[in-house]
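Annotators were shown the component list below and the corresponding predicted structure, then asked to write short factual statements about the assembly.
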Amino acid sequence: MGWPHEGAQLMTTVDTNVAASAGGRTDPRLAGVPGEPRAERLYRRMRFIRRFEETVLELFERGLLNGTTHACIGQEADAVAIVEHLGDHDHMFSNHRCHGHFLARTGDALALIAEIMGKPEGVCGGIGGSQHLCAPGFMSNGVQGGIVPNAAGIALAKQLGGDAGLSVVFIGDGTLGEGVTYETLNVASLWKLPLVIVLEDNGWAQSTPAGANLAGSMRDRFAAFGLPVFEIDSTDVEELDAFAGRALAQARKREGPVTIVIHTYRLCHHSKNDDNRPAEEVAARWDLDPIEIHGRRLGPSARAAIDAEVESALQEVVDQAVAL
Amino acid sequence: MKPVLVPTTDVNSETGVLVAWYADDHTKVEADELIAEIETSKAIIEVPAPETGFLLHAVREGAEVRLTEPVARLFGDAKALEAYTEEEQRRRTEAADSGPRATTPARARAEELGIDLASIDSDSLITVGMVEAAASATTATTELPDPLPGAAGLPRIALLGAGLGATQVIDILRVAGSGTAVAVVDDDQSRWAGEVMGVPVVGGFERLVKLFGDSAFDTAIITISTSVPARARLREALASNGIPLANAIDPTARIAGGVTFGTGNVVCAFCHFGVDTVVGDNNFVSAYNSYDHHNRLGSDISTGPACATSGLVIVGDRVRLGTGIFVEPYVELGDDVEVASGSVIVASVPAGHVVKRRVVTTAVVPRR
Amino acid sequence: MIAARAMGDALRAVLNEDDRVILLGEDLVDPYGGAFKVTRGLSTEFPGRVRSTPISEGAIIGLSAGLALSGYRPIAEIMFGDFITLCFDQIVNHIAKYEAMYNGKATCPVMIRTPSGGGRGYGPTHSQSLEKHFLGVPHLRVVSSSLVHDPVAVLRALLAQNRPALLIEHKLLYPLHLMLPAGGRIEDDVAETQVSDDGLPTVSIRPVDRKDCSFTVLAYGYQAELARRVLSRLAVEEEIFGELIVPSQISPLHWEPIDASVSVTRRLLVIEEGVEGCTWGSEVAARISARFFGELHQPVATAASDPTVIPASKMLEARMLMTPERVERAIRKVAT
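Structure shown to annotators:
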């Protein structure tokens, strides 16, 4: 055996992976029933993510999960809206708060829960855990900003290889503190890479409000590199859906990177039980819960039916995962 | 031939890299034409041709150059350039054909032992060990002669060194009658089994020690005349083997009253030692040397012919005198001093110093 | 052929052989062709595959990671090894981790080349040998070019594996001619090459048979060349015989050739240009001491530069850096 421990312990696993739209383990009750109306589809997919995150947090509290996790409760509409306009050729690179993005992309709740449980059947055999996921068309890593040049490199690969896809990277307001982000914006703009930066500004970087973190204007940072900025302040998935469609259509012209800034809010704590934001602020934002805003559009029975389907589908997943 | 140096005022860089040649090797260039580019840690320097001429590159592209050395040479005509290149080539091949690969100590030892390096069969570096192995291999096959029996009543003397010094000592002993030379030893194996004036060369130092152990001789004299280090080294070697030295003093020498000699001294014809002069050990004094009264000589000294000192002179250990040297009274020559032939010494010389003499030529001019 | 040109040719060869190879770095394109001219001609010959980047080490390496994740084989150049610190996060937290933390579902075979080392009086931030900070990063190979290894063979071996590698090129080697073993010799010394399972060579150089060598010297890159010259001279002039082992991959090490030598000579000196304190030599010493406990004639000796900044003044630099004089002193010490 060499030093350092070369080629050590890459566990062989059951192939838990599933192509983004290749069917397989994607449960239509969670990922969307073919043929259902768009409004219901959007609701179902957001509900899936919300219930998944709440379930994970609950499992943590019950002691069935350990480690750390970063739930995206309140931001479900962003993932769902963006993914509506992505296809097989596109790649998504997400950050530490990646469950919503992962589930919107792959629909594979079982693999994700198993991963967070640290089981061999997990997305990465339990090695990556909540923040470090790899599936076809999807990757995530937990170091702020570091993924941005990686995503740009994937965009460059698409450009070099003549691949028509986009490379989409998800960052937060806090990520704007990291230098490598700006290095990447510069190069990506210079080289007109097919990169889409989706900035989910939820107003807080862990415990620090954006006002204490960011000087100057958020959109001007991107404009400074000559990048078009599509900006919206909304938690309404239908607004976001139309908005994402426009932004991504621009990106597909392949005239260079495109920035999407979504002002949203994280309704849960940063990771677990570390929320000391002002209670009134948080409470006020619950009024803008994306699930509520959109769910109200569905008829109460349609909504309840979807809720029930999501519930039972997720319960099956949890039971399966626990049994692994 | 004009050397082309890098025009730089950069005192911080000793070297640069020759980044590019702009003029090909062996071509004609005009004065001021840009011929090369050098990169130092500070800058890229352009090198123009200092004059018109035929260019010979001195370094390859990409090589590191010392800024004090020429990067190229310019010749008046193509023929001069070719001649220079041929000469360089010749010198290089000569250096390459320097024979078999051996370490420096091995080469020295091979010379001492008379071994031809080419005779050692080895495709890797030849070491001292291999040379000595080759030496003992050859000795094993040669029959070494025995010493002479000597004459009754006279000490049997072994001589160290089979060169010309031995001929002097053998001659002195024959007329002095103070002992008989029965054997000669030398580390040069090519001399073994030979003879010097009828005295057999019986082997090397190892053989000498063995013969002494067998009582084949009584005392020894070191006959090496000019090398002071060799004399000193051999005296120590003899002492550590318990082998006593003997003196060989030519009968024509005039030894005054009160003079004392140590052992191992060789004194050649017509020398003079003045009243109360004291002489140490193992000194080789050539013919016509005069040490005036009350001199003190140390040990391991070697002198050429016709050296003369005045009274009260002190000569230290391991002093080497050339020929024709005069020394004024009260002078002290310190240990390890060397004096050039023809010197006249009027003041003491500190130990470890060398006395040099400027040669003055004689000019022939027409009479006015 | 000088090492800079040989590396340029090696890059040309792999660019020709493997469509996936892309070169990224600062000032690479023609006519400049790289700060040390290694890539001269390549951007013209391979348009679009050799790119100059802005001065953004993090982004250069981060983009390379993305390219590698997408199946390309990027070879990034960091202009001076001193600047590799700017890439530390990308190398350690991204490139070296992706394959393992993704349980083998992705590979990130980025190759990073960087000119390193002192001796030109370039000062504290342009002269360092920082590779020691990357030793022992799991899943990262650290390789050093040397005059005795064929750069084409090394590049091909690295490309044959899907693993990330950091390739250190000492800048003082660039203008020197390669001295590859030919007919089992390098100049007048015996030279033996052993190749590891993944194709990386280690060259053993000795003036006489191994059994006649009284000590082993382990070194790489420029220090290996300095050691080679000293050992060659000491052999001829003073019959001090030492065997020199020059690995191409310095981490993880191919131990067989080292063990084979030390088991005979029982004395080891490890030389490197990086500064003293938690060095390559410390690691080798720990492992060799454990392996040969009780059999060594003396503790494993290590020689490194002094633990301080590298002064710009050449005279002061020579006092703290591993120079030919210090190499000789270290070798003489282990030889007695």
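Statements collected:
1. The domain at 3-173 of chain C is CATH 3.40.50.970 (Rossmann fold).
2. The CA atoms of residues 277 and 307 of chain C lie 7 Å apart.
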